């Protein structure tokens, strides 16, 4: 090492050039794919141990929770569910909702908990979030697959429109991902974000539209809830599952607008906060 | 080559005020350089190494890396404590695009962890951790190694092995070594720099650097 001469503006002579343009983007994508793959495997291991029941637990937990609530609702059936099996109604609402909330809540510790991995320059905060969120999404998809195919086998009732159902699920995760990025960036910058986010996810539960169909609400309430893109998504999910059995209220363009906006803002926030992270 | 140009770094202190770690520091690390960095506790040696690695960003100035640079090899970072040495090796192999089995074999041979290879890394002694970290980074083959104190903790046998492999590895490559042990500095490095109160002073002669540091 030597002291560089003062007042140098360009790069010193003989310094190799860096790849540029498309080649650099492609290389970056390959690195990101490897990192996310490694993070996914690591996340599975650290959360569930190396036992072979690891992945099973990942989806048994939401399945158990949603099943219990579904059973309770079967016993005390309520009007807001319309004419559909209460158990199925609850699982379709709760299982994705819990995953959504888990993503937002866990985002508050994304940086603190993974700081040591970010000593590897290629591991980005965005990759850590994506790996976690993909795992949550995989788990919930498994829960829904099990419950829906179980119901189909048991009662012969199949989902009304699978692409709508899958689309709604993907939109919900895309929304959670964007919000999660915003929360992760905020929490890495200001400690107070961690304190605020947890209670907020509880307060937000009734406004999520996960627990009841909007059709059975008074018109003003319904219109108020439809400001929340999450409520649209849960309506869309029920539309995909039950079709005409419950009238659904959602606007795909409105949801897409939100999804794109929060993801772009989230990426920008993570980028803005990166240079100020202290290790 | 790592090139850093007018790099400054400060932290905001709680209750106001700023801690300046580096002020307007410039320099070049060329292939084949092996430089030791001396400085008192809290002088900012580890921060400097983290910035060279691209982990932490400077407050102002720029740092360009045009060779593959290791992660900062320091205690307690870069690994997952709840995972075993073997699982950490698999993770490192995957993110650095290396064949998993080759990395595992190399680390088993170099770090000599025996059955501890399958125990969580949090059960490791400081020396074992250092061996694992160095083994993992040597398995990847970087152009430049950034070593922050992990060589200082090994026993004599390990120091000998690390020195041998570093001598092989760093032929034509670069090494930046932070250490409190002047003997290790003389063993591993050809030049040295002293970090004190935000400025980095380079010395062509290691003994001169050690003398300056001792006089601080």
Automatic annotation (TrEMBL), chain A:
<feature type="transmembrane region" description="Helical">
    <location>
        <begin position="166"/>
        <end position="188"/>
    </location>
</feature>
<keyword id="KW-0812">Transmembrane</keyword>
<dbReference type="InterPro" id="IPR013525">
    <property type="entry name" value="ABC2_TM"/>
</dbReference>
<feature type="transmembrane region" description="Helical">
    <location>
        <begin position="252"/>
        <end position="273"/>
    </location>
</feature>
<protein>
    <submittedName>
        <fullName>ABC transporter permease</fullName>
    </submittedName>
</protein>
<feature type="transmembrane region" description="Helical">
    <location>
        <begin position="134"/>
        <end position="154"/>
    </location>
</feature>
<comment type="similarity">
    <text>Belongs to the ABC-2 integral membrane protein family.</text>
</comment>
<keyword id="KW-0813">Transport</keyword>
<keyword id="KW-1003">Cell membrane</keyword>
<keyword id="KW-0472">Membrane</keyword>
<keyword id="KW-0625">Polysaccharide transport</keyword>
<keyword id="KW-1133">Transmembrane helix</keyword>
<feature type="transmembrane region" description="Helical">
    <location>
        <begin position="200"/>
        <end position="217"/>
    </location>
</feature>
<keyword id="KW-0762">Sugar transport</keyword>
<feature type="transmembrane region" description="Helical">
    <location>
        <begin position="84"/>
        <end position="104"/>
    </location>
</feature>
<feature type="transmembrane region" description="Helical">
    <location>
        <begin position="53"/>
        <end position="72"/>
    </location>
</feature>
<dbReference type="Pfam" id="PF01061">
    <property type="entry name" value="ABC2_membrane"/>
</dbReference>
<feature type="domain" description="ABC-2 type transporter transmembrane">
    <location>
        <begin position="36"/>
        <end position="242"/>
    </location>
</feature>
From TrEMBL, chain B:
<keyword id="KW-0547">Nucleotide-binding</keyword>
<comment type="similarity">
    <text>Belongs to the ABC transporter superfamily.</text>
</comment>
<dbReference type="InterPro" id="IPR050683">
    <property type="entry name" value="Bact_Polysacc_Export_ATP-bd"/>
</dbReference>
<keyword id="KW-0813">Transport</keyword>
<dbReference type="InterPro" id="IPR003593">
    <property type="entry name" value="AAA+_ATPase"/>
</dbReference>
<dbReference type="InterPro" id="IPR003439">
    <property type="entry name" value="ABC_transporter-like_ATP-bd"/>
</dbReference>
<dbReference type="GO" id="GO:0005524">
    <property type="term" value="F:ATP binding"/>
</dbReference>
<dbReference type="InterPro" id="IPR015860">
    <property type="entry name" value="ABC_transpr_TagH-like"/>
</dbReference>
<keyword id="KW-0067">ATP-binding</keyword>
<feature type="domain" description="ABC transporter">
    <location>
        <begin position="2"/>
        <end position="216"/>
    </location>
</feature>
<dbReference type="Pfam" id="PF00005">
    <property type="entry name" value="ABC_tran"/>
</dbReference>
<protein>
    <submittedName>
        <fullName>ABC transporter ATP-binding protein</fullName>
    </submittedName>
</protein>
